[in-house]
Amino acid sequence: MARRYFIDQLPDDGGAVLVGDTAHHLATVLRVRPGDAIVLADGRGGSCEATVERVGGGKVALQAGPITHAPAPAFRLHVAFA
Question: Does the pTM of the predicted model rise above 0.70?
Answer without folding.
Answer: yes
